[in-house]
Design goal:
The complex is a heterodimer of chains A (397) and B (104). With 397 residues, chain A is an alpha/beta fold. Helices cover 23% and strands 25% of the residues of chain A. Chain A has 3 domains: 2-22 and 62-92 and 241-312, FAD/NAD(P)-binding domain, CATH 3.50.50.60; 98-236, FAD/NAD(P)-binding domain (3-Layer(bba) Sandwich), CATH 3.50.50.60; 316-397, no CATH class. In chain A, helix 1 (2-9) runs parallel beside helix 6 (286-304). The two termini of chain A are 39 Å apart. The chains are: A alpha/beta (397), B mainly alpha (104).
Chain lengths: 397, 104
Amino acid sequence: MVANKLIKRLDSSQWSVTVVDKNDIHDYQPGYLFIPFGINSPDQIRRTKHPFIADGVELVMAEIDTVDPDGKVVTFTDGRTIGYDYLVIASGTTPRPDQTPGMLGEEWHKSVGEFYTFEGAVALKAAMDRFTGGRLVMHITEMPIKCPVAPLEFVFLADDYLRQRGLRDKTEIVYVTPLDGAFTKPVAARELGSALEKRGIHLESDFMIESVDQEAKVIRSYDEREVAYDQLVTIPLNMGADFVARSGLGDELNYVPVDKHTMQSTAHETIFVLGDASNLPTSKAGSVAHFSVEVFVENFVQLASGRPMTHSFDGHANCFIEAGGGKGMLLDFNYETEPLTGTFPFPKVGPMSLLKESRANHLGKLAFRWVYWNMLLPGRPIPLPAEMSMTGKTPAA
Amino acid sequence: MPTTTIAGHQVEVNDEGFLTDPSQWDESLGAELAHMIGVDLTDKHWAIVKFLREDYAIMGETATLRRVSTQTGTAVKDLFTLFPVKPAKKMAYVSGLPKPKGCV
């Protein structure tokens, strides 16, 4: 998205744009959630990447070894190097099951499942198909995670899926989180907490995992609680890319510290960090990446012509939550304003409702896959403002 | 914000009892806050509290459990022993800092 937008905006006699990527696969990651329930098929969410790269952008397939921010050189694992004037790091965040003792093992991608990788989501579909009742445990290792609403969506969809298969009465669904409630922000935690309660989903909060015991089929916390499972669905620790750590650019989770309004590295002014790879204090969500890229592009065009950067990102995030039963919820928030109830994008008429289940929200979420492939990736404008608006929102009491 | 008196200090606290102004903290207050949640501060505790105070001054936010663990070289299990049950919150409470933000 950055390359596709910048190549159109920068003077081609002055600037060249190169994308470095380790493979040519691009997944529609929001689709992973739907794979285990057969709502999306694997072929609907995977495409080759190069057709999405605009003419004029050079695409290099390579794995990055290190970045030398002082010499302004990127070294690849095969020894090749590439110099830069400005570097955009967009290497995201990755689930790291290796960071929790016992998580990887014989039962990984079987009774210990996950849906944050293509392979994991496909394996979890098989596990859900085999599931005949018992304890289904959704577990979050540690915040922050990519798409923080996804585990909630998973249990809502599982509730619906098990009902349809006549297995809901034979299943206990447990939601295990390191947070002290269903979500962090007060209004959303209250609304989403009651959505769990309504479905008879048990909430186990403040759970900091120490280990997975695949033999005994339990997860254990540091404060010595045990949660037993028949099918575990876990979200492993999320970490930024290892090359960030090797280059000395990251914090304790390999995220690059940035200015939260410009996404410029706080240590090196020739480095910008977009998407999940930075330490922005907002959700690691596609909507954040999208909105922040728009701000970045405007700023970079100014920077390229020697002017000061005047655009400021407000932390805007917009997340659809699948609620099962053909309904969805919607969250819209930024650094200052927590997710609130109300309607979106227009007062009263909506058509989307904030923090409430509705059919329109669900349809919005399903339609987004088309928008993503056809408008968002190619860098075409979509009619959602980068800056959050209070229009239609009910202020917190 | 309610004002309360702890160990002779007039301090402002939020509805969960966390100090709202970290500059109102000093070591005697820290010891009293720890006492109120049933923790007796040893040298090991003080090393953690000292780190949290210094890190907050630089970073402008309270260190997460993981950050405390990696930066001080203390195993997470040991942090649970030092500040039982909810170490991240208790460490922040004793250090007079806001409770660490669970990022959304």
